[in-house]
Amino acid sequence: MVEIDLKREGEIEKLLNDLKSIKNPDYEFHDSLKPVYSTGKGLNRKVVEEISEVKKEPDWMRRLRLKALEVFESKPVPTWGPDLSGIDWDNTSYYNRPDERRVNDWEDVPDQIKETFQKLGIPEMEQKYLAGSVAQYDSEGVYHNLRKVWEDKGVVFMDLDSAVQKYPDLVKDYYCRAVPVSDNKFAALNGAAWSGGSFLYVPKGVQIDMPLQTYFRMNGEGTGQFEHTIVVADEGSKVHYIEGCTAPRYDRNSLHSAIVEIYVHRNARARYTSVQNWSKSVYNMPTKRAWVDANANMEWVGGSLGSKVTMLYPSSYLRGPYASASNLNISLAGAGTVKDTGAKAIHLAPHTTSKIVAKSISIEDGKAIYRGLLRVNKGAEYSKSRVQCDALLINDKSSSYTFPHDEVYEPTATFGHEASVGRIGTEELTYLRSRGLTEDEASSMIVLGFLDDVMREIPMEFAVEMNRLIKLEMSKLGAVG
C-alpha cells in the first residue's frame, strides 16, 4: 500500500500541475545515417584485430582484446537469470563507426548526429549544468569537451579511445583492473569488442562542483554497443559523473554490454548517476564496479527504464578502513520486459559501511527481480550494512521477485535487510481522481511518490527527465488493473 499524506496540500497541488504539464517525447526515433565503416556481422579473431587496427591501438591493447575473445568464446551464456536466447550473436554488428572524426567543437559535429543529440537536449544540458561532456553515437565518441577551468587543474575527460592515444600509461594503470575480462561472459565480450566510453581522471585534491556527463546513443538495428568507462577520483578529490543512454526500437534485437570501472582513492568522493532508457529491442548487460579505498565514499544512483532484458548489479569493493558506499536504484519493468537488477557490497576492511536501496515498479506483465550480494569478510570489524528492497505492482499480471544473498563472516558486524511489496490502492486513486486527475495521471503520481527517496538524490534537471520517462511508460498502460 502506498500512502499519501493528505495534509501536504501545497505539495500535492504543485505535483498535479507538474504532471499535467509533462509531455511525452519520443525517445525511440532513429536516423537514416549509415556508418562510414562497419566490421559486418559476427565476432571472431579477424574482426577483433580489424577493430584494433582501425583504431591504431598499441600492441598491448590488441593482445588484451584477443585474450578477452578467448575468454568470451570459452564461457557459456548465463542461464541462472532471465532468458537470453534472443541474443543473436552471429547476426549482430559489433563495430560501426558513424564518422571519421572526433571533435571538441559542437559546430563540427556532423549535422545529422548533431540533430539527434539536440533532440535529446544534450547541448543545452552541457551549457547549463555540466563541467564537461562526451557524446557517443553507435560505436564511437563523436564529441568531447571540458570546461577550461577544470582542464587547467589537470582534469582529463574524453572518450576512452582518445585517452588510449594521449594517455596510454595512465589508462593502462586502470584498464580492466576492477573488472577483469575473466569476470563474466559479457565482460569478456566488452574486452574483445569495446569501443568508445569515456575516461575521467580527477587529480589529487581537485573537487569538481559540476557534473560531467557521457551520453550514449545506439542508432542501428541488430547492433552492439560496447563502451568502456573508467572514472578515477584521486586522493581527496570529488566528482559526479552522469551517464545517459537511449536507442530506437527495431524488430531485430540489439545488445548493450558495457563496462564501468570506478576507482575512489583515499579520502575521495565519487558519485555515478545513470539514467538508462533503452528501447524494448535491447538486451542490456553491463558490468559496473567500484574500488573504494580508506575513508573514501562511493555513491551509485541509477534509473533503469526500457530494454527487453536488463541484468545490472553495480558493485562496491570497500577496500580500506572507513570506506563507505551507497546504492540507490530505480527499476521499471514495463510490458514484455524483465529487469533483473540489484547491487553488491563487499566489505574487506574494518569500519566500512554500505547501504542498498532498490525500488522496482512492474507494469502489465513486466517482471522485476532484485538480485543482490552483501558480503562482510572476516576481519572487517564493526562494519555496517543495510539493504532495503521495495516493489510496487501496478496490476494482477505484473510480478516481482527477490533473491538476496547475504554472507556475514565477522561477528562484530551489523547487518539489516528489509523488503516490501505493495499494489496501488483504490483509496489513493479515488482521492487523486477527485482532484481532477485521470486514472493514468493518478497512478503516475503514486509511482513518483513511491520513488521519492531515490528521486531526491538525482540532480533536479535529470530528475525531471526521469519523471517524464516514467510518465511516458505509465501512459502506455491504459487502464490500471
Write the layout of secondary structure elements.
Elements: H1 9-21, E1 37-38, H2 45-54, H3 59-74, E2 96-97, H4 111-119, H5 122-129, E3 132-137, E4 140-146, H6 148-151, E5 156-159, H7 160-166, H8 168-174, H9 185-193, E6 198-202, E7 212-217, E8 224-225, E9 228-233, E10 238-246, E11 254-256, E12 259-264, E13 269-278, E14 282-284, E15 287-292, E16 297-306, E17 309-312, E18 315-318, E19 324-333, E20 338-341, E21 344-347, E22 353-362, E23 367-376, E24 384-393, E25 399-408, E26 414-423, H10 426-434, H11 439-450, H12 452-455, H13 460-475
Parallel strand pairs: 3-7, 6-9, 7-10, 8-11, 9-12, 10-13, 11-14, 12-15, 13-16, 14-17, 15-18, 16-19, 17-20, 18-21, 19-22, 20-23, 21-23, 22-24, 23-25, 24-26
Antiparallel strand pairs: 1-2, 3-4, 5-6
Q: Please, could you describe this protein's structure?
A:
The chain has two domains: 72 residues, no CATH class; 409 residues, no CATH class. The N terminus is likely disordered. The chain has 481 residues and is of the alpha/beta class. Helix 2 runs antiparallel to helix 3, helix 3 runs antiparallel to helix 9 and helix 7 packs across helix 8. The strands form three sheets. Strands 5, 6, 8, 9, 11, 12, 14, 15, 17, 18, 20, 21, 23 and 25 form a 14-stranded mixed β-sheet that branches. Strands 4-3-7-10-13-16-19-22-24-26 form a ten-stranded mixed β-sheet. It has a two-stranded antiparallel sheet with strand order 1-2. Strand 3 and strand 4 form a beta hairpin.
